[in-house]
Design brief:
It contains 29 helices and 19 strands. It is α+β, with helices and mostly antiparallel strands. The protein has six domains: 206 residues, Orthogonal Bundle (Hypothetical protein af1432), CATH 1.10.3210.10; 153 residues, Beta Polymerase, domain 2, CATH 3.30.460; 88 residues, Roll (Ubiquitin-like (UB roll)), CATH 3.10.20; 70 residues, no CATH class; 80 residues, no CATH class; 76 residues, Alpha-Beta Plaits (2-Layer Sandwich). The two termini are 73 Å apart. The relative contact order is 0.04. The C terminus is likely disordered. Bound molecules: manganese (II) ion. The site of manganese (II) ion has 4 residues, from loops.
C-alpha cells in the first residue's frame, strides 16, 4: 500500500484549475451555449468519479480532464468532443447509464460515448483484438470518427501516465500502441501524436536504448543548435529580403525515428545524420501558399545544393491523410545532408493535428467540415476491395521494416522478425507446440511449416503427438529460440537412437564372436572414421553400418578374437615360433629372408623399414609384423605374450613399403600438382592412390605411397610441408584403402 496525504480542499482547487486550463484551450471554438454544456459534462464527470483514484493515487477526474485537453489542444476538436472526452469513462466505470447521458446531452454525445464504451470493452479488457474485429469496430465507429480521435487522446494520456502500471501491463499496452494506435494516428495525419506514442512505447519497451539515445542527443545539443542557427541564418535573411513572412526552425527527430533508422540501416548513433529537420513555415494567404512555398524552395536550393532524388511535393498532391508539405534534402555547409520541410501555417497545423485542424480552416459551419472529414476517414477505412488484413497491412506504412506482427487465433499479438515462418511462430507460442508442429493454418488456409508469415497474418498451429523436430527445420526457422530448441531436441533424439544402436551393436558383435569392450568400440569408430562412439552407435541404429560392414572389419583382423586358440592352432603357432628361434638369434630379421619365413606386414599400422616393430604369430596367416606403437600392440602383447617375436629390419633400399599420408591445407590452385610433382619426380616415389576432398576451401587428401624406410618418408614429409598452402601432414596408421572405401559409402 502506498501512503498518500490527501488534502481534499487542495485537490478541489487543483481540479478547478485544470478545468479552467481546458476552457482556455477550446476558447477559440466556443459558441453560444458551449461553455454551459462543457460545465455540465464536467460536473457530471467530477461527481460520478468522485470516489475513484488512479493508480498514481491522484483523483480519477484528472484523467478525463487531460483527455479533453488533448482533444481540444492537440487534435483541435470542438465542444461535442470535449463533452464526450470528459464523460468517456462514466458509463463504463460508474452508475451513469447511456439514458442518463441522452437526457442531458442528446443523441450525438450518447452515440459517441456508446462507441467509446464499446471500444474499451473489446480493446482494453483481456486480449488484443483480432484484425477482422478491429476493422469492423473502426467501421462501425467511424460513423463518428470522433470516437477514434477521443480514443487516441485517451490512449495518449494513459501512455503519458503509465509509470504506475505493473510491468506486464505496460508491455501489453505498448505493443498495442505500436501496432494499432500509432499507425492509426499516422493514418489520420496526427503526426505529433503518433511520434509521441512511439517514443513513449519505446521508453517502456526498450528503456536502455531509449535512455542511450536521449543521452546522446543531449550531449550534442549545443553543437546541433549552433549548426542549425548557422544553417538557417542566410535562409531567414533572404526570405525577409524578398518579403516573405516565415518562421524557420530546426526540429529534432523523435528518439523512436532515430532508433528506427539505426536499425534499418544498421548504423551507430553517430552515423545518423538527420537528427533534425529544418522547417520553414510560411505565414501567408491561402491562395499564395503554393507559390510562396516554391519561392522558399528556390531560396533554399540557391543556398544549398539539393539532392535531386529527395524532392517530395505533397502540396500539388497531398497524402491521403491530408498531409501537405514540400520536402527536400540539401547539402549543408559541413558536408552533411539536411532535410528541409516547407509548408504554410495551415499545412503545418494539419500535419501536426490531422484532419481535425483541416476542417477548422474550411468555411461555413464547422459541422459540415467535420462531415467532410468523416467521409474521408470512412473512405480510408471502408475500401470494399481490401480485406481486413490488407487494411492492417496498409497500417504499417513502412513503420516496421524488420519485424512483423502476427495474431493468434484468440487475437493475441506476437512480434516476430521479418522472414519468420509458421514454425517460428509455433516455437514462439511454446517449445512443445513447435516440436509437435506438423502444419499451420494462416488466415484459415492450410500452409506448410516453412510458410513465410506476413504482417497481420492470423496463425493457427496444427500439432501431432507423433511429430518430432527434423534436421531440415533448421533451414527455415529464423528465430534464435526456434533454432536452439530444434538443435537441442535433435541432440536428445540422436542420443536416444544411439542408445538403441548400442544394444544392436552389442548383439551383432556377440554373434560375430567379438568382445564388446571399450577398446574394440574405439577401434570400430576409428575404422569407420567416426568422430565418437555415439556416432558409431547412431550409425548402427540407422542401419548405416550393418553386419556386412562389421564382417569386413573382422576380416581385416583388427579385433582380437574372443576365444582362446584351439589346440591345433596352438601347435601351428608353437612350430612357427620354433622355426624362427632355431635360427642364430631369436630376433626375426625382416627384409632379407622374405621367402624363407612366412611373414606379412600388418595392414593396421603399415610398418616400413626404420619403424620399431615386433612379430606376432597368427593362427592362419603366419607371422604378422606390427609397429610397436600400433593401436593393437598393447592388446596383443598383454594377452598373447607367448606369440610375440622380437623383430628388426635389415638394411636394404631395394624394397618399397606401402604407407599413407594424410594432408590438410588451404585449397590453392595447383596444390595437387605441386604435391605429386615432389612425390613422383623429386623423390621418385610410386603412388598407389590419392584421394582428395575439398570443402569450402579446406583441402584434405590421403595419399598411399611406397617408401623404402622411415628416413625416406621423413625427408618426403619435410619437403611436402614446404608446399604453399599445406598446413599439416601426418602418417597413416591404418588401412587406408578400406577407409577410403568406407567414406564413399
Ligand atoms: Mn480513459
Amino acid at each position: 500500500m502506498k501512503d498518500y496525504t490527501i488534502d481534499i480542499e487542495q485537490e478541489k482547487s487543483e481540479i478547478l484549475k485544470r478545468y479552467r486550463t481546458l476552457l482556455r484551450a477550446c476558447k477559440s471554438t466556443l459558441k453560444k451555449g458551449d461553455k454551459g454544456m462543457i460545465r455540465l459534462a464536467f460536473d457530471m464527470a467530477v461527481d460520478s468519479h468522485k470516489d475513484m483514484r488512479r493508480k498514481s493515487g491522484e483523483p480519477y477526474i484528472y484523467h478525463p480532464i487531460a483527455v479533453a485537453q488533448i482533444a481540444a489542444e492537440e487534435i483541435g476538436l470542438g465542444t461535442t468532443s470535449i463533452v464526450c472526452a470528459l464523460l468517456h469513462d462514466v458509463v463504463e466505470d460508474t452508475d451513469i447509464t447511456l439514458d442518463d447521458i441522452e437526457h442531458k446531452f442528446g443523441k450525438k454525445v450518447t452515440k459517441i460515448i456508446d462507441g467509446l464504451t464499446k471500444i474499451s470493452g473489446v480493446f482494453d479488457a483481456n486480449s488484443s483484438m483480432q484484425a477482422e474485429n478491429f476493422r469492423k469496430m473502426l467501421l462501425t465507429l467511424a460513423d463518428d470518427v470522433r470516437v477514434i480521435l477521443i480514443k487516441l487522446a485517451d490512449r495518449l494520456h494513459n501512455m503519458r501516465t503509465m509509470e504506475f502500471m505493473p510491468r506486464d501491463k505496460q508491455l501489453k499496452i505498448c505493443s498495442e500502441t505500436v501496432y494499432l494506435y500509432a499507425p492509426l494516428a499516422h493514418r489520420l495525419g496526427l503526426y505529433s501524436l503518433k511520434s509521441e506514442l512511439e517514443d513513449l512505447s519505446m521508453k517502456y519497451m526498450e528503456p536502455e536504448t531509449y535512455k542511450f539515445i536521449a543521452l546522446k542527443l543531449n550531449e550534442k545539443k549545443a553543437e546541433r543548435e549552433h549548426f542549425i542557427s548557422e544553417f538557417i541564418g542566410p535562409i531567414t535573411k533572404i526570405l525577409s529580403g524578398q518579403g516573405l513572412e516565415a518562421q524557420v526552425l530546426g526540429r529534432p527527430k523523435s528518439i523512436h525515428s532515430i532508433w528506427t533508422k539505426m536499425k534499418k540501416k544498421g548504423i551507430p548513433f553517430e552515423e545518423v545524420y538527420d537528427l533534425f529537420a529544418i522547417r520553414i513555415i510560411l505565414i501567408c494567404n491561402a491562395e499564395l501558399e503554393k507559390s510562396e512555398s516554391w519561392k522558399a524552395y528556390s531560396i533554399v536550393t540557391d543556398l544549398y545544393r539539393p539532392n535531386p532524388d529527395r524532392l517530395r511535393d505533397w502540396i500539388s498532391s497531398p497524402k491521403a491523410n491530408g498531409y501537405e508539405s514540400l520536402h527536400t534534402t540539401v547539402m549543408g555547409p559541413k558536408g552533411q545532408w539536411v532535410e528541409v520541410q516547407i509548408r504554410s501555417q495551415r499545412m503545418n497545423e494539419i500535419a501536426e493535428k490531422g484532419f481535425a485542424a483541416h476542417w477548422k480552416y474550411k468555411e461555413s459551419s464547422s459541422d459540415s467540415g467535420l462531415d467532410q472529414w468523416v467521409t474521408k476517414v470512412r473512405e480510408l477505412l471502408s475500401n470494399p476491395e481490401a480485406n481486413a488484413l490488407d487494411f492492417l497491412d496498409d497500417f504499417k506504412m513502412n513503420l516496421f521494416s524488420d519485424e512483423i506482427f502476427i495474431f493468434t487465433p484468440k487475437g493475441d499479438l506476437m512480434q516476430l522478425p521479418i522472414d519468420a515462418t509458421a514454425l517460428d511462430f509455433a516455437f514462439e507460442i511454446h517449445s512443445d507446440v513447435g516440436a509437435k508442429c506438423i502444419g499451420a493454418k494462416v488466415n484459415h488456409k492450410l500452409v506448410p511449416l516453412s510458410y513465410k508469415l506476413q504482417n497481420g497474418d492470423q496463425v493457427e498451429i496444427i500439432t501431432s503427438t507423433k511429430q518430432t523436430p527434423k534436421e531440415d527445420w533448421l533451414t527455415y526457422v529464423v528465430t534464435a529460440k526456434a533454432k536452439a530448441k530444434i538443435k537441442s531436441s535433435l541432440k536428445d533424439e540422436k542420443r536416444k537412437i544411439a542408445d538403441d544402436g548400442k544394444e544392436i551393436l552389442e548383439r551383432k558383435l556377440k554373434s560375430l564372436k567379438i568382445t564388446y569392450n571399450t577398446d574394440n568400440i574405439l577401434k570400430l569408430s576409428y575404422y569407420f572414421k567416426l568422430q565418437s562412439t555415439q556416432d558409431l552407435f547412431y550409425n548402427v541404429a540407422k542401419g548405416l553400418i550393418d553386419v556386412k560392414d562389421l564382417k569386413e572389419y573382422v576380416a581385416s583382423e583388427k579385433i582380437v578374437e574372443q576365444k582362446p586358440q584351439q589346440t591345433t592352432d596352438n601347435e601351428n603357432i608353437q612350430s612357427l615360433i620354433k622355426q624362427v628361434k632355431t635360427k642364430d638369434s631369436d630376433i626375426l630379421l625382416i627384409g632379407e629372408d622374405l621367402q624363407k619365413i612366412d611373414y606379412k606386414l600388418s595392414s593396421c599400422c603399415n610398418p616400413i623399414p626404420g619403424d620399431d616393430v615386433f612379430g606376432f604369430v597368427t593362427v592362419s596367416e603366419g607371422i604378422k609384423i606390427h609397429r610397436t606403437n600400433c593401436p593393437n600392440a598393447t592388446k596383443l602383447m598383454s594377452s598373447f605374450g607367448y606369440r610375440i617375436l622380437k623383430a628388426k629390419w635389415t638394411s636394404q633400399k631395394q624394397l618399397a613399403f606401402l604407407t599413407g599420408l594424410q594432408i590438410t591445407g588451404i585449397d590453392e590452385v595447383g596444390l595437387i600438382n605441386n604435391l605429386t610433382q615432389i612425390i613422383s619426380n623429386d623423390f621418385k616415389v610410386n603412388m598407389r592412390s590419392i584421394t582428395v576432398d575439398s570443402d569450402e576451401g579446406i583441402f584434405s587428401g590421403s595419399i598411399m605411397i611406397y617408401v623404402n624406410d622411415t628416413q625416406h618418408l621423413e625427408d618426403l614429409i619435410a619437403k611436402l610441408k614446404q608446399v604453399k598452402g599445406i598446413t599439416d601432414i601426418t602418417r597413416f596408421d591404418s588401412d587406408t584403402e578400406k577407409i577410403n572405401f568406407k567414406s564413399t559409402g
